[in-house]
Batch of 3 targets.
Target 1
Amino acid sequence: MGASQTRSDHEHQHLTDKTGFSLEQIKNLHKRFQQLSGNEETISKEDLDRIPALANNPIKKQIIGAFFDKRNQHQDEVGSCDEIGFEQFLMVMSHFRPPTLKTTDEEKEAMRKEKLRFLFNMHDTDNDGTITLEEYRKVVEELLSKSGAIGQEAAKAIADAAMLEVASTNVPHMAPDDFYEGITFEHFEQILKGLEMESRMHIRFLDVDTTTMRCGKSTS
């Protein structure tokens, strides 16, 4: 038991260096991972699909997909996994880690950029580095139409108008017949410039409130 615990702590220490989570946080996240996976070594999209708190979320599909998107796992790859292990799960969760009092301005900016990239990837579903009108329209339609307050056609019109506004802002000298290819990550950064991310990007559906997680190395 003691040798097993030592090995586990050593493995978790390796993950603290990669993610910035403390040993205690990693242990808590591992318990939640085991609950989701049924004590298996990997979890699937179906495992996350069964989370009750996600049932009525209008972008449930995008949230679940984000966990299996290799771009969000700090891998130099694109594409999607069918299942992920705990380390991959933890790497995705690290996007929601808030800064601490010791976090430098440079580190805060890097963390903000990672959060923005994560959000961008959720919209850029075909991994081509651009959020097209079709991708943007799909997300907006789901957000609006599933709320029950607006029909699909009205949601489509709102999405189209929003994309045109983005196009006019990012490419102000577009001719009437010019085709706007879509939102690049640089455009996305400009659109969300000034938006406070720390209190907005957190996860509660996993029973882990990341807005209250204190980060850094464990002192115990």
Note: The beta strands are 42-44, 83-85, 130-131, 183-184.
Target 2
Amino acid sequence: MTTHTAIAPPSTTMTTPVERDRMPQRRRRRLDLHRTLASVIVTLIVIVQVYPLAWLFLTSLRTEQDFASGNPFALPTELTLDNYARAFATGNLGLNIVNSLVVTLGANLFIVLLGMMAAYAIQVLGFRLSRVVRALFLIGIIVPVQIALVPLFIDYSSVNLLDTYLSMIIPLAGFALPMSVYLFSSFYEYIPRETYEAASIDGAGPYRIFGQITFPLSVNTIVTIVLVNSIFIWNDFIFANTFVLSDELKTIPLGLQNYIGAMGNVDWTATFAAVCITITPLLLVFLVLNKAMIYGLESGATKG
């Protein structure tokens, strides 16, 4: 005698046609809410970033009397360009810009060349303990610059490097080198090995491979590294203030001290005009090359 047991069908949640119509509407509402929140956050970030620049530019066009007697955050009641003329007359602004340009270009040259070659040797050529060498480079990212000031000052004094361009270029390049090696090696990691193997089969040596394959592919990464480091090098104060002793080699951050008069009085409107002049080159370069910079960061983080 056999017994048959009825198998109950799996329970399912039945939805009515009205509920089915409401589900897409809820998703649309959530999506619209997320878009609205994202737009609000982006707008706030833009305001926080743009407002100081706009205020700086407007203040540089205000008269001294208007800035001193009125609200410093108010709109100017009268516009003038005398502040820019006084900015060049009060300090050696042109010479300061030239010095900052020399230091920035020199430091970036060392950062790019040494970073590319080190990353190429570590990631592409490979050698024993290459991972250890890369780890040592990365440890340099967490080393604070302040601990090197006194030893560097003593060493520079003994080899007559104080008050020279190299006294600023060497530490600026050295402390930026670990991040440069990391970005270049991360990018080289995703270049197909078959590319290098094909070049080797054709008889290309490591120098030719570097010059004809690796270097052209690294253009966006180079732009990224140069832009990121240029901001910090252009605005560097600590190394310039420590190793520069004469007015002829003062960079922009040191040159702005010339606008402080007797008893600590500051010509604020001329100072703001000088700051506007000095940040304009960086802003223009960043606006022109920002797409290459973003692509370089993405290439180094994801794929080549």
Note: The chain is about 70% helix and 0% strand.
Target 3
Amino acid sequence: MKVSVLASGSSGNVTYIETPKHRVLVDAGLSGKKVESLMHDIGRTLKDVDALFVTHEHSDHIKGVGVLARKYGMPVYANTDTWDAIGTKIGVIPAEQKMDFEPGKVLTLDDLDVESFPVSHDAANPQFYQFHHNSKAFAIVTDTGYLSDRLHGTLQNADAYLIEANHDVEMLRMGGYAWSLKQRILSDKGHLSNEDGALAAIDLLGNKTKQIYLGHLSKENNQKVLAHVTVEQIMQNRDIAVDHDFMLYDTDPEIATKLTVI
């Protein structure tokens, strides 16, 4: 299994996963043209993508979904509540391309098993995904205010993670957002801070874990270097050997990560 985080941040999110038999996307929160460009950057084409998995209805996750579905004819998977919440936001998608995929289920596509799981976020019914190929697992865990004990059990000891490090708490508190928005982000239905993301990663990682990507950084309330240093320091304080036992990678809202074997 190979993975590239094509884009991750408050402005748009897209992740690419491939196996010998399948090539899929999680979310398409950028314009269709930008997603095409990012795919080109990693030496891939959207013509070969055979499924698109949607996590929830927020615009930074669905902006390009309709365009890609209509242009390339790929099936789009989301749960019923998310489809209802999306409504007409992405235009019309042919009914035969709209697939229902509910939380807590596993979809098998030949050599790829896709496991959906619910998260705590202020959306209709947000869910993220863990991908399994042979004995390897890659889990995406962003857009959540916290990780439940049940989720820890589901996602424990994957080979790679995309973990949320959305904001620095002090930058958020001192920033220009309205107090109501600050409360939403800090709540159990908001986003993981740098510190929370580090602690979540520590709880999840195991002997198999070799790659952790830090994702969904806020443009206004975080900095890439700050997120990386904060997470690394917290891990080192727990005697976890960052960039030795596993690699800690940054993501970007405009630049795709290298297509990497999981």
Note: The chain has a mean pLDDT of 97.
